[in-house]
Fold each of these.
Amino acid sequence: MPRTYRLGRRSAQKDLTRTRIVEAAIDLYIELGISRTTMQQVARSADVAPGTLRNHFPSRDDLDRAIVDRALAEMQAPDLSIYNGLSTIGERLTRLSRETGAFLDRAGRWYKMWLREPMVTGVWVEAGAAYGATWDRLFREALGPLADEADAMAILRATMHPTFFEAVQSGTRSTDQTADLIAAALTPWLEAGGRDRPNAR
């Protein structure tokens, strides 16, 4: 019985060390960027020996994969079920805008990491492509018959972008208030099929 207890403590300690390494790497990636962060810096920041770091993450890709897994778990991108029961473009836009706002609240530190250095190499490529495909499906479902309208898609992508969302929020509106304002501004134009566009034919 004592041996089982010691093994349990050792396993828990190992998990804590692994978590500390991952968190240290995330902080450094946000501060310095992915390409400028070395494994030696991660070890120092996590207060572990280089050998301990290698025991947990033999390669940089192993560490990045663990960070990607953490990011996906924390961000929790919405899926198409958010539109269940909704029939109008206005309803779908409002739901998408609110879900986008909630997502941005969850993804704050990951967005800071992306601003520091877009994640376009290594294990980030596959995860980024999957995430991009998820949002593309969400946008297309929200637009419905306008999904193949290049202007409609461009405007929707722009208004759901974190920079635009934060600019509208401007530190004075709640996430839901911001989402509803964006949806209210965008819905009439899309309901009209973009027919008021200057270059519409």
Amino acid sequence: METKARRSIFWALLLISIGVVFLLNTLGYIPGNGWELFLKLWPLIFIIGGLDNIFQGRGYIWAVVSLGLGTMFLLANFGYIAWSSFSLLLRLWPLLLIAAGLDLIFKGRSVLSTLIGVLLAVAVVGVIIWAVLTGVTAAQPLASQISQPLEGARQLNVNISHPAGFVEIGASENAEIAFEGKVTLAPRQMFDEDYKVKGNIGYFRMTSAGTVFFPWIGGLNQPLWDVDLNNTVPIDLTIDTAAGEQHIDLRGLEIENLDLSVAVGQLAVTLPKDGEFSGNLSNPIGSIKISVPSGALVEFRINGAFLSRSIPAGFTISGDRIYSPGANSGNADMRITIDQPIGRLELIAAP
């Protein structure tokens, strides 16, 4: 007799989970507003999907991997793992392909074969969790030093196109160089830099070629572009990252125009205390964190539909604008547009 398949309980579990979380929130046991909770608890989708597969008696291997990923993402969102859940997702998505392949091999076979497949899935997930927690990775990125004299330029136009990984920008103490730093590449990734002086402007282009499949897992050997820029000349700075993180420290730099973009991931910017410039920060999916020094007069123009915000005391909100203490539409020195459809915006009042 053919066994009748059990119907899915995914949506029922999802509704129950959301209801429990928001009930605990309204009772004061779980802090945060609605969007903050949503951003932290979205990995429940993986966990509920895994439980649903087990309930329906299908896809045990897929369920194990889904439960493992969901648990890691939740731990990351609540600070038990150094990486954010978005960063982990960028690194661990190949696990979904592994799970699908193992499921195709062992699905519908004997109980013993299914048990072997489940044990393999548990082993794979266990190794990945160990690698994430210890920072171990088999792929050793390649590192090289870069340095470029200013060559008489009185202004810099910097354009960095970065496919995946981390970018860190700061100010150099060497007034004779246009830029210097260290570039760490993933295996099979090729690096390309170009610097030309036309008129009084030094044009610096930095990019890479080669396919990057996020081969790194741990935190010790991740691809990182760490570049310090000249601190004596005006700079137009453009950085585009497809997936990963940018940590941009503008203190000590003479920024005239700023354009930073991270398609998926995190963008952290430290603003200077003084200076006049306009800028644009783009982060379609992820988080933006901006440190605003005391006394800096900044206007933020916010374009965000589903956006969680953390605004310090003393900042004022007027429509789609946010002003630092003492700033208004007439006296702001730094005017920054933030394009962030989905994610979290955190402004930090720095000393």
